[in-house]
UniProtKB/TrEMBL annotation, chains A, B:
Keywords: FAD, Flavoprotein, Oxidoreductase. Residues 79-156 form the Acyl-CoA dehydrogenase/oxidase N-terminal domain. This is Acyl-CoA dehydrogenase. Belongs to the acyl-CoA dehydrogenase family. The keyword Kinase does not apply. The lineage of its organism: Bacteria, Pseudomonadati, Thermodesulfobacteriota, Desulfobacteria, Desulfobacterales. It comes from the Bacteria. It holds the Pfam family Acyl-CoA_dh_N.
Amino acid sequence: MAQLIADKRDIDFVLHEQLEVGTEYKGGSYAEFNRKTIDMIIGEARNLGIKEMLPLQKVGDDGCTFDAGTVTVPEGFKHVYDLYCEGEWLAMSDDPDWGGQGLPHAVSMAANEYFYGSCNAFMLYNMLSHGAAKLIESYGTEAQKKQVLKKMFSGQWSGTMLLTEPEAGSDVGALTTVATKNGDGTYSISGSKIFISGGEQNMVENIIHPVLARLEDAPAGTRGISLFMVPKYRINEDGSLGEFNDVVCTGIEEKMGLHGNCTCSLTLGGKGQCIGTLLGEENKGMAAMFQMMNEARQMVGLQGFACATASYIHALNYARERVQTKGLTDPAGSTPVSIINHPDVKRQLLIMKSYVDGMRSLIYFGGLCHDKIAMSEDADERSQYSLLLEVLTPIIKGYITDKAFEVCSHGIQVYGGYGYVEEFPVAQLLRDSRIFMIYEGTNGIQSMDLLGRKLGMKKGKPFMDFLETIHRTIDKAKEVPEVAPLAESLQAFFTRYTEVTAAISKAAMSDKVLDAYAYSHPLLEVTGDLTMAWMLLWRATVAAPLVDKKKKDAAFYKGQITTARFFINTMLPSAMGKMDAIQTCDGAVTAMDDAGFGGK
Amino acid sequence: MAQLIADKRDIDFVLHEQLEVGTEYKGGSYAEFNRKTIDMIIGEARNLGIKEMLPLQKVGDDGCTFDAGTVTVPEGFKHVYDLYCEGEWLAMSDDPDWGGQGLPHAVSMAANEYFYGSCNAFMLYNMLSHGAAKLIESYGTEAQKKQVLKKMFSGQWSGTMLLTEPEAGSDVGALTTVATKNGDGTYSISGSKIFISGGEQNMVENIIHPVLARLEDAPAGTRGISLFMVPKYRINEDGSLGEFNDVVCTGIEEKMGLHGNCTCSLTLGGKGQCIGTLLGEENKGMAAMFQMMNEARQMVGLQGFACATASYIHALNYARERVQTKGLTDPAGSTPVSIINHPDVKRQLLIMKSYVDGMRSLIYFGGLCHDKIAMSEDADERSQYSLLLEVLTPIIKGYITDKAFEVCSHGIQVYGGYGYVEEFPVAQLLRDSRIFMIYEGTNGIQSMDLLGRKLGMKKGKPFMDFLETIHRTIDKAKEVPEVAPLAESLQAFFTRYTEVTAAISKAAMSDKVLDAYAYSHPLLEVTGDLTMAWMLLWRATVAAPLVDKKKKDAAFYKGQITTARFFINTMLPSAMGKMDAIQTCDGAVTAMDDAGFGGK
C-alpha cells in the first residue's frame, strides 16, 4: 500500500537498524522500550496523524478568525486537539511526575514525524505549549510548577513564547516591554508583542505566556532582560481561574502559509492590569530563553523535515501514477510510461529522497542524543552529548529548513502544473515550510551561531568530537566493499572540510571578520552537506550486508546504497567547489558600498 | 529617491552603455530611436506601470470570480487594461501595418520590465493575446489576419493558447481534442482543455483561441496535430460579433499565486456548435505552436526576471530602512545599524543583485537579437541571430525562472518575519514566480531541449557561436586591468565548460543516454551560471574605465565591478564543482530501482 506523509519502512530502518535504539535502551531507564513497544507507539501516532490530523491540513489552510480580541481556530482543530491530549502525546517524552509519558526522544521524533507531517499548523500550538512548559519546569519555583505544569503537559492549558516586538526581532536586546515590581512578589507587565504563535485561541481554558521584559532599572541590551510567567487568566490559590489578566489580542497576521496557526499581536497591561511572576533570576531571562530556543530550534528542524517528507511521499506517489510520454530509450511509437521513469523526474525524486533520508537520520539521532543524556549516569557523557547537540542545532534548524524548502519546491515541480494548483497538497507544503527558515532565529543567525560560537566553543572540543563521530562512520564504511569507494570520496570531502573550517575560523578572529561572516551561511551549507553525506553513508554501510541476507527487502537496502552514491557523487562536488570559495574568502561583500547596490 | 520595482539607472546602463542600442540602431530601420526617444518611451511605461499596474498587484491576489461560465477579473483590471490598450502597448514592437508600434525589442523589454514587475497576473492576459496574434500573423491566411489581427493587437479582442489536456501536459502528442471537416472549409471542434490562462474573462468583447486538435484521420502523436483558430463568438463577414461559438468555461483553478490571472478549463463543442478554421497546414500544428512557444518561453523568462527585480528592490529598500543590532565590528554598546550592513544580509542582497543584473542584461540582449533580425538585410546574419536566440531560449526560460524563484526567496529572508506576512510584497512575488518554472515547458523540458537539441543543432555551429560570443567578452575584459583577474577566472571556467559539454554530448548519444539526461538540468544550471558571469563581466568591463571619468556615478560603476567579482569568486566555484559531477556522469539515477524509492 502506498504510504502517506512518511515512509514507515524507513522510519523502522533508522530506529532499529541504523541507530539500533533497542540495543541502546537495554539495561537503562528506557529498558522497557523494545522493538515491539516502540512499534506499537509509533503505530498509534501514525493512526492519529493520518486519520485525524491529516484532514486538518486543508481546512486549516483557510485560516483562523479574529474578532474583537478572540481567535477561533479552524473547524475540527478542537476535536483533534482533545484526542491528542487524551492520548497524552503533548508530553510524551517528559517526566511522569508532571504528567509526562517518559518515552524515549528518538521514538517521539518518529511519532512527531507523523503528527507534523500531517498538519504542521495544528502541531505548532502543541510545540509552543511544550516549550513553555519545559521552560517553567527548568526555571520555575516549586510553586509555579505546581500551579501550571500538569495542566500544561496535559494540554488543558496551552503555552506560548512572547519575545518579538516590532522593533526587536533578531535584535532581542532592543525590546521595550516593561516589568514593574508590585512589592508583593509579583510584577506589572506593560508592552506589545508580535508574531506570537497561538497567542490567543479557543481550544483551551487558559494560556500561559512566558514573556521577555525589562525591569525598570535594568541594564541596556540583552543583559537587562528578565523572564516572566504571565497567564491569560489569573490563577486562584486553589488552581481555579481568576480574573482576566489584561493580555489582549489586537489582531492576527495574514501569512503566506501555516494559516491554521494564528500569529497574534498581544498587548499586555493596556489597562494596567497585567500581572506576572518572575521565572528564574532577574536579568537572566536571555539564558533561560536560549534553553527554550535551543529545543525549539531542533523542533523547527523537525517541522521543516516533516513538510519535506510529506512532499516527497506525495511526489513519489504521483510520479508512479502519472503516465506521460514514452521512455527516452524506448523505440518510437511505444506506449507512454510513468513519469518516475524519466531521468529528470527521477533525479528530482532522488534529490528529495537523499535529503529526506538524511534529515530523518539526523533528527532521530538528535533524539537519541537526548536519550543518552537522560539515560547516562556519567556527567561527562551527559555533557558530551549535550555539547554535540549544541553543535548539531544550527544544522538541524538552519540547514534542514533550507533544504526542506528546496525539497518542497521539487515536490511541486514533479507534479508539473498540478503542483501549482491548491487542490493538490504540495503547494501548501511549500508555503507552510517557508517560515521555518525564519522563526526561532533566522537561518542567517543559525549560520553565525555555527561560525561564531559552535566551531570554537570550549576550545573547539565539541566540534572536534562532532567531526570524530563522522569519521568513525567513514572508517567503518571503508571496510564494507560495496560502499568503500563512497567512503573514500567522503574522506576527501571531510579532509577538505577540516582545512576550510580552520581557515574561516581563523579569518573570523582576524581583521577579516566581516569577510568571514559573509561566508557563514555557505559554511552552514557545506556543514549540512557533510552531515547529510555522513548519515547516508552510515545508512548504506548498514544496508550493504543485508541486500543478500534479507531478500524481501533487497530493493530497499539497495536503494540505501544508491541514494548515498547519488548524494556523494552528484551533490557533494558542488559543495566541494563551494568550499574553495569559502577558503578564498574573497572580500567582495565587504567591499560593496551601499550606493553600489543601486536602487536610488 | 528610492526606486520601486526596477532600477532605472541600471536599465539605462544596459541599454545605452552595455548594449549601446543607439549605436546599433543608427542608419537602420530603427534609426529614429535615439537615446532621447527611448528614454521617453521607457519613462511612459514606468509611469503606467508604477501608477496604474502596481496597485493591481495586491487586489489581484484576491483572485478572479467564476460564476456559471463567466469569469470576472479583479476590481480595477479593466480600467488599467483600457489605459494599456489606449497607449498601444500590447503590440509595441509589432508591424505598424497591423496596428503595431514598431518599437525595437530591446526597448520593449525595458518597458515590459516595469509592466510585469508591477503586476505579472495582469500582464499575462496581454502576453497570451500577443502570442496568439503573432501565431495568426505567421500562419494565418490573409482573410484570417484581416478578420482578427488589428483587433487583437489593439487589445479589443484577446487571445489565448489551448494546448494542455488532463492527460496531455508535457506530452502534447497525447491530446485527444478532435476536429471534423464540415466541408465548407471550417471544422467542428470537440474536446476539453485545461490550464488556459485568460481562457474566459470580462475585459474584452471576444477571445480568439488558437487550439491544438487532431483531425479524425490524423496519425498518432505529435505528427497528427493541427492548429485551429477558434473564436469565443463567431465573427460575421462585416467583422461584427455573431453567435456564441460553444466554448464554455467550466471552472477556474485555485492556485498558489498569480491569482489575478484566471486559469480556465474550457469545453469546446459540448453542444456540437464549436466552429474553427485551420491555421497553417493540416498536421503541422506542432511546428506552428513551437514558434509561438519559443517567443512565449522568452517572455516567461522575463516574467520570472520581473518578479526577481521587484523582490530585489523591495528587499534593498527594506534592508536600508530596517535598523536592527549593532554592527559586527563596532565596539560594544554602540547604536544599531541598518541591516544592509550585516554581512549575511549584504551577501543575500549581492546574490539577488548579481542574478537580477545578469538576467536584465541577458533579456535585453535577447531583445537586441530580435532587433538585429528585424534590421538586417543579410539572410545569413538573420539566421545567425535567430539561432543564437534558439540557444539562449532554454537559458532564458529555464535558468532565469529557477533563479528568479531563489531571488524571491532571498527577498523574503531579508525581510525576516515580515517577509512571511502578506501585508508586505515579497511573499506574493515568491508565490507568483513559482509557476514560471513549470508552464511553457517545465524547466526539466528546457534542460532536455538544451542537451538534446540546442547543443548539437546544425552540427553544433550555433552553440559554438554562442560560446564564441562569450569568449569575445572574456578577451576584451583581459585587456582592462581592473577586471583582468576576473576574466582569467572566467576563462578557466569557460575552458572547463567546453570540456564538460563535449563529454555530456557524447554520453547523450551513447548507451549512457539515460545517465546523461539525469544531468541535463545540472547542465542547464552551469550553462546559466556561465551566461550570468558573461553578462556581469561584460558590465564590469564597460564600467571599469568610467569609475574615474564619471565621478557622479562612481559608486554605480564600482558596484558593477564588485558584483562581477562576487559572482565569479563566490558563486562560480560551486558551479565548477558541479561540472565535475556532470563530467563524471555517475549512473546512480539510472541504477535506482522504482522499489528503491520506498514509500510502499
